[in-house]
Amino acid sequence: GSIFQGEQGMNQMAFMRPVPDMAQYATPVGGLYLCGAGTHPGGGVTAASGHNAAQRILKDRRGVRWPWKKRATA
Predict the structure, then answer these.
(1) Would you say 55 and 35 are in contact if contact means Cβ atoms under 8 Å apart?
(2) What is the pLDDT of residues 6-64, one digit of tens each?
(3) What is the pTM (predicted TM-score) of this model?
(4) First and final CA of the chain: distance in angstroms?
(5) Burial of residue 16, with CB atoms counted within 10 A of its CB: 0-12 exposed, 13-18 middle, 19 or more buried
(6) Is the dihedral of CA 58, 63, 67, 68 positive or negative?
(7) 20 to 30 A from 25, CA-CA: which of 11, 49, 62, 70?
(8) Any idea where the domains of the chain sit in the sequence?
């Protein structure tokens, strides 16, 4: 198998992996993010796509509290 999860054509390079509509680790499905060899920077770069996806999630969730965490009261 390929460590890059299939063809890596010019229209699927770098920030456009795996396809432009699902690039930058986010998908059209709310709360669903991608990482792994099929996303930038591709196979052979250990854990980089997981780190990048986590950074995207944090960016998207900034200011949003987890539902199970209560605000501290004085």
Answers:
(1) no
(2) 666 776 666 666 676 777 888 888 889 988 887 878 778 888 989 999 999 988 888 77
(3) 0.65
(4) 57
(5) middle
(6) positive
(7) 70
(8) 10-61
